[in-house]
């Protein structure tokens, strides 16, 4: 069975040398770190450290909140992995003050500007918008490169960049070393994708980040597609194993959007599941290249 999988992988991904990467860094998105007790950036970062994550990835709200978050991470010697910000291609000035502020505050931190893309002039996945999008994305990538920041497109259900294949199509045209894509498990599921190998094949040349969570197989509703890791019927471990077999070991984020209850309990459940799943996908003896 193992031999058959290797042959299939080589057929799908070309003449790649399959080498397992080292276990990825696991970070928490702030979609799961806020509850009645954990409200401020410092409280959320403290929780992230207590549960055992390598770092944090918040949504951008305002400059002072990002500064407070960076200060809290620095004090606890944790990493800022990514900051989630919109790129509005309907705007006459799409490279917004928010994008510029994030780039400057992330200067020198080896972090990602995480872009979700609004473009109401075109339906989701419509390549007719590429002519408008690509020059803007190049501008963002060039600004980010000067600050030592990387840019990753975040596919999101019902946005113009809805599928990871959309993000990969754009990254190929943007042609910037610091510009790539994220594979989001929950949005991949909700968008109705069924061919994981094909989606990873499209993403792999540009893949920078992955987000995961527990989910039910064959159910596109939000509550079913985003659960604590270790819950649900979808084989998340199989996704991690595929990434490992491909030699990919970039950062992986935990998505907890919409999960109710105590944030610490929810995060701890997911962390316990991660430790089990990651040991299987990236055994301690694994020794391979990281591709972040």
Describe the protein in words:
With 292 residues, the chain is an alpha/beta fold. It has one domain: Divalent-metal-dependent TIM barrel enzymes (TIM Barrel). 41% of the residues lie in helices and 14% in strands. It has eleven helices and nine strands. Strands 3-2-1-9-8-7-6-5-4 form a nine-stranded parallel β-sheet. Strand 4, helix 4 and strand 5 form a beta-alpha-beta unit. Helix 3 runs parallel beside helix 4. The two termini are 29 Å apart.
State the secondary-structure class: alpha/beta
Number of helices: 11
CATH fold label: TIM Barrel
User: How far do the termini sit from each other?
Assistant: 29 Å
- Roughly how many Å is the radius of gyration? 18 Å
| Poorly predicted segments | 1-18, 286-292
What is the domain total for the residues?
1
Spatially, the strands of the biggest sheet line up as: 3-2-1-9-8-7-6-5-4
Shape: globular
User: What's the architecture in CATH terms?
Assistant: Alpha-Beta Barrel
Q: Mean pLDDT score, rounded?
A: 91
Q: What is the CATH H-level superfamily?
A: Divalent-metal-dependent TIM barrel enzymes
- Helix residue percentage: 40-55%
Tell me the strand percentage band.
5-15%
């Amino acid at each position: 069975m193992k031999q058959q999988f290797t042959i299939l992988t080589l057929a799908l991904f070309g003449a790649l040398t399959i080498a397992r990467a080292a276990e990825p860094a696991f970070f928490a998105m702030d979609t799961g770190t806020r509850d009645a007790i954990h409200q401020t950036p410092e409280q959320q970062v403290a929780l992230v450290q207590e549960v055992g994550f390598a770092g944090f990835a918040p949504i951008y709200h305002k400059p002072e909140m990002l500064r407070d978050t960076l200060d809290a991470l620095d004090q606890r010697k944790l990493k800022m992995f990514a900051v989630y910000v919109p790129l509005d291609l309907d705007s006459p000035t799409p490279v917004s003050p928010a994008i510029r502020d994030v780039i400057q505050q992330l200067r020198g931190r080896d972090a990602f500007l995480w872009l979700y893309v609004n473009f109401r002039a075109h339906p989701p996945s419509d390549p007719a918008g590429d002519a408008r999008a690509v020059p803007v994305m190049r501008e963002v990538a060039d600004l980010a490169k000067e600050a030592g920041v990387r840019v990753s497109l975040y596919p999101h259900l019902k946005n113009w960049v809805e599928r990871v294949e959309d993000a990969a199509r754009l990254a190929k045209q943007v042609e910037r070393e610091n510009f790539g894509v994220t594979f989001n498990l929950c949005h991949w599921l909700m968008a109705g994708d069924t061919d994981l190998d094909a989606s990873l094949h499209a993403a792999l040349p540009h893949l920078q980040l992955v987000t995961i969570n527990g989910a039910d197989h064959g159910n596109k509703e939000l509550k079913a597609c985003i659960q604590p890791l270790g819950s649900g019927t979808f084989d998340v471990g199989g996704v991690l194993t595929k990434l490992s077999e491909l030699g990919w070991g970039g950062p992986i984020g935990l998505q907890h959007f919409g999960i109710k209850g105590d944030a610490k309990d929810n995060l701890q459940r997911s962390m316990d599941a991660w430790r089990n799943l990651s040991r299987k996908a990236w055994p301690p003896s694994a020794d391979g290249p990281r591709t972040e």
